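Each field is listed here:
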Amino acid sequence: MSHLIIEQGKGVGAEVSVPSAGMKFGRSPANDLVLEDPAAMLFHGRFFFKSDGSLWVTDFGAGEKTVVGGIPIDEYQLKSGDLVEVGETAFRIINTTQEDAVAPPPAPPAPVPVPEPPPPPAPAAALGGEEIDLGFKGGRKTRSKPQAAVEATPQQAKGSLMHRLMQVIVILLVLGVLVFIVPQLLEMVEDTPEVVVKKETMALSYERVQADTRNIFRYYLELDEKGNLSMAIDDLKNNRHIQKQKKVEETVMLHLAVSIDDAGFFEVDSDYAGTSQGQYDLYDIAVQRNRRFQQIKVLNREPPAEIKRTVSVIEDFALSELGISHTFFKDNAKLLELAEEALNLGGARYAERDVRYGNLAEAIRNYSEAMLYLETFEPKPAIYRKASEGLLRANTERNDRYKEHMFSAEQSIRLQEWDAASKQLRILSELIPERNDPRHDTISSKLLNVEQHLR
């Protein structure tokens, strides 16, 4: 069942199916959908299904944002007919149904009609009966008393007085109780301790081991409740050992917890184990969210769809936060080839920095990609040094240009030259397209204010 069709870029007309485990896309060969598009990021984004069967696309925070319907997105629910643009490639959504989607529940039965209450009885006058005088009419009373009626006796008058006296006593008792009880209730309310809402907690560990008679590869990721993220990678064959740490923001942890829930991790209720001659292939995932904890191991077996989605979520998170993924551990010759390609592309964009303002940002991105491919190399090859020098040179020039154009923009704002200010701020938006750069927020805020004056 196809979900996408390529409308622009290489492979126009080709139809693509999104598997239940989701599909990462980008220029790197490690992606499920490899884009031969120089404008796309190494790891650009991912198509995936949520637990309700809806099709979504997420952006990995790329400089070149994923665009849906002409609007840059971070995460977006797709519908048939949507156009998803990734760099110079465009996909048309032709189907959003998951292959193993569950049929919707039957509609509830229609409510049983309730009969209307009967109308009230007609007044006595309408029925032809004698009109009763309640004593509110003026003038003399014309209707004579019935024979059964008699004058009130002294005993009846005494009873009526006692009844009224009892009513007064009851009212006084109620007032007395209120005077005594209300202050105590107010004191109890003041002494009631504040209800403290406990914040959500999140922790996880993820271990991936691939071993055979020639090599042992181990990837271990751990995130504790305080947001301390650590990673260790050991590759015995290539003698590579990497360790990284980072402090993760609470909002990022909450987003990760929700994504793991949506992947269906807590719906898996048992481990999976198989046998394989001369190989050891392990997935070991443990997640604790608030008071809920679950650990699942998959050994020498194809993981179920829920585990595949969970692994993809965790590995994408590690790549975003630490800048490295175990999928980079390919053959050294292939990594060198990819790094050299990114280095050459960065040099070409830097040489054309005066042709288009955005070329300088693309050069920075390409130099960073080249260094990322070589992150696990020890000692670092010459390409890494060239990429590092190119990155420093491009960043320095971009910082200088940022100061120059921001000075011109602020001067135009002070002089209320709104068209000139808007032009300078749009140039700055091309220079600093990365949303995780604090300068991007400054530019966006100023541009929004200027555009209000142009309306």
User: Anything to note?
Assistant: Helices lie at 154-191, 250-263, 305-322, 332-351, 358-373, 382-414, 418-431, 438-454.
